[in-house]
């Protein structure tokens, strides 16, 4: 089933690109397109539509999430037009792991953000464990066990109550050409949502059945809650951590996470390794940004 879904999704995107190119070429009346028989154009569009239909039939819940994400963003856009949201978290958080991890994605401004255009994930972070040269695995990159952060403890980032756990995804495979494994039931993979007063933290891509806590249980800052994995929309094992103003993953404003008692150390090889511009962030004591090694004060550093 995994192979079949990956083939169908691959065909869908390929023929989606062909369809868009043909549409653009026709719009701008490029002469080469006039020579393509109408039957070929129909074939391209039909393959795209049929592969999309097959994808919807084979993974309906995931497809529904894609639409929910879109409509959640529309909802937030309209709400935020009426009232400018407060984007700052009022709670102080700890990093949700032991020792030192690399902040690979995330920041508090557009340039460094995890995904600025997705309001619900604007201030999210992706954390990897790497060596000092920012390598996140040893030897064979297609084996999850070879990633330094795989199966490592995930800790509660602050005191709170567990309000939601998702635990129905197997691990995603590491794919070639930086593609994402299409075989998944949830964008988040396995995840946990913790309520901290009026804010909600979410940690995603957890290993199935690795949860140490249950829904309704009170957790303490630093408590072991699960293990880091590669479930859901994940290119390699990592922790995705975000805080939002509401419990809905798709329709809540993302909050700038206010960290307390953290160490930050610039990762010299980050920009080269991840083909990104060096971070423009200047540490201010409570926020973090991509391109830094981060740890909670009092935990050992590599
Ligand atoms: Zn992420």
Can you describe this structure?
By secondary structure, the chain is an alpha+beta fold. The chain has 5 helices and 13 strands. The longest helix is centred in the first third of the chain and has 26 residues, at 2-27. The chain starts with a helix and ends in a 6-residue tail after the last strand. Bound molecules: zinc ion (ZN). Zinc ion (ZN) is lined by residues 105, 114, 124, 126, 240.
Give a short summary of the structure.
The chain has helices at 2-27, 31-34, 38-58, 60-82, 270-274; strands at 88-93, 100-105, 125-128, 153-155, 160-166, 190-196, 199-206, 218-219, 224-227, 239-244, 256-259, 262-266, 292-296. It is of the alpha+beta class and 302 residues long.
SSE blueprint and pairings:
Layout: H1 2-27, H2 31-34, H3 38-58, H4 60-82, E1 88-93, E2 100-105, E3 125-128, E4 153-155, E5 160-166, E6 190-196, E7 199-206, E8 218-219, E9 224-227, E10 239-244, E11 256-259, E12 262-266, H5 270-274, E13 292-296
Parallel strand pairs: 1-11
Antiparallel strand pairs: 2-3, 2-13, 3-10, 4-9, 5-6, 5-8, 6-7, 7-10, 12-13
Helix pairs in contact: 1-3, 3-4
The protein binds zinc ion.
Zinc ion binds at residues 105, 114, 124, 126, 240.
Could you describe the largest sheet, including whether it forms a barrel?
9 strands, antiparallel
How many extended strands? 13
How are the strands of the biggest sheet laid out side by side? 8-5-6-7-10-3-2-13-12
Mean of all residue-level pLDDT scores:
91
Rg over CA atoms, rounded to whole Å, is: 21 Å
Q: Architecture of the largest domain, according to CATH?
A: Distorted Sandwich
How far apart, in Å, are the first and last alpha carbons?
Answer: 41 Å
* Helix-strand category: alpha+beta
Percent helix, as a range, is 25-40%
